[in-house]
Write a structure and sequence with these properties.
globular, 4-stranded mixed beta sheet, 11 strands, alpha+beta, 3-stranded antiparallel beta sheet
């Protein structure tokens, strides 16, 4: 069947993929907005993780089609790698919480999820990727995936390996012709030029109505290359398309500043956090995967509407705090902290936010993007200085104040 998409046109899915698409684990994403509170500032930004997963899968399929001839794979390996990659990218956001990133800070400790040993970590709060792995490896979706794709040599562990980047247990499934293809397949799922970013930049730009997320994806995909290093195959880019990659970096940077860090959504995320901190566990995210899939934007908003908590009421009634000051990008916000202290000394409630977004995986060998040129194959950081320029996280600091006393706060600070 085909699914019509405003970004990529007709997206083809097979009958077996449709069965997984219809699973409650994936259907939940219909009610998880891609950009959280962003629709309060951009009314069109009501698109979902459900649509993004399909779009990213389509991009990954196009990327694989461009790379496959260079990989010279046996037919069985080619079909198996293509299908595993499609499933990994389709499910890469499976574990996102209600309102996407806005509620990750109320997830339980990662130990509570009881993940399999090969993907387990300790001593931190769980994140959406941990829940993704839990749903893939320890829910009804895992059994369905084995039933539909096990005969083709595809196991849930193989799909999870492409999402987390760790070798799965059992016989190694990513070797072909004496080469290890896990690095390049993993980079398509999560890397400098992954299918995730190539979809969401265009999708978020379209639905928010801004132009900053646009870049020449066709030219980039046409110029992707496979680079072999010590028996491992990595993702590369032909030198003639480096300018398009630079434009891709700039698009990401501008989307962070104009959309992902918009003061409205950032401010409401802070109010939601205050609700979570002061409501004595009134709303919590469970570790059990079957219970977790009952939680989406609808259940969270319903909980906020039922609540008598003052912060929940502010969110529901759209009584957000006002921005008094915004620092230039890159500022750490220390000056704003001092101003906040002055306001609080006068009994005026205020808070500061520092929004940070990692633009690249700079310095991580496993995600290095190589450039193929007449000079040979070199890491992208050695080919274009613009890459290093955007290696650090994009940051934006703001000072918010309770709206009822905003004018008083401005006078106090001499604004």
């Amino acid at each position: 069947m085909h699914i019509r998409d405003p970004i990529h046109g007709a997206i083809e899915i097979t009958a077996d993929e449709r069965a997984l698409l219809d699973s409650p684990q994936y259907q939940r994403l219909r009610n998880v907005k891609q950009l959280g509170f962003a629709d309060l500032a951009f009314p069109g930004a009501t698109h979902t993780r459900y649509a993004h997963g399909l779009g990213a899968m389509q991009v990954a399929t196009e990327v694989f089609a461009a790379l496959a001839p260079q990989l010279e794979l046996e037919l069985d390996d080619r079909d198996r790698f293509r299908q595993t990659l499609r499933l990994a990218v389709l499910f890469h956001d499976l574990g996102h919480a209600p309102l996407s990133h806005a509620t990750e800070r109320i997830m339980p400790q990662v130990e509570a999820l009881q993940l399999p040993q090969w993907v387990r970590s300790e001593g931190r709060r769980a994140n959406h990727e941990d829940y993704t792995l839990k749903l893939l490896l320890d829910s009804g979706l895992a059994a369905e995936l084995r039933k539909l794709f096990g005969a083709r040599g595809i196991e849930p562990e193989h799909v999870a390996a492409l999402i987390c980047g760790k070798p799965p247990p059992g016989p190694y499934p990513f070797r072909s012709g004496g080469r290890d293809l896990l690095p390049i397949l993993r980079q398509v799922v999560s890397g400098e030029l992954d299918a995730d970013r190539m979809d969401y930049l265009q999708r978020d730009s379209f639905f928010t109505g801004v132009n900053y997320g646009k870049f020449d994806s066709d030219w980039i995909i046409q110029n992707l290359a496979a680079v072999e290093r010590e028996g491992r195959v990595h993702l590369g880019l032909m030198h003639r398309a480096v300018f398009a990659f630079e434009d891709f970096l700039l698009s990401r940077y501008h989307m962070f500043l104009s959309v992902y860090f918009h003061y409205t959504s950032v401010g409401y995320e802070q109010l939601l956090q205050r609700y979570c901190d002061t409501s004595a566990g009134e709303y919590a995210l469970p570790a059990d995967p079957d219970e977790y899939i009952q939680h989406d934007d609808v259940t969270l908003i319903a909980a906020l509407r039922r609540s008598q908590n003052p912060w929940a009421k502010r969110v529901v009634r759209r009584q957000g705090y006002r921005v008094l000051l915004e620092n230039t990008p890159g500022d750490d916000g220390q000056d704003l902290e001092r101003l906040k202290s002055r306001l609080e000394a006068e009994g005026i409630d205020a808070f500061t936010t520092v929004s940070r977004g990692v633009l690249s995986h700079y310095g991580k060998d496993e995600t290095t993007l190589w450039v193929k040129s007449p000079r040979g194959e070199v890491p992208i950081a050695e080919y274009t200085p613009l890459y290093e320029r955007y290696a650090e996280a994009a940051t934006l600091a703001r000072l918010y104040v309770v709206p009822e006393r905003a004018d008083e706060a401005r006078r106090l600070l001499g604004l």
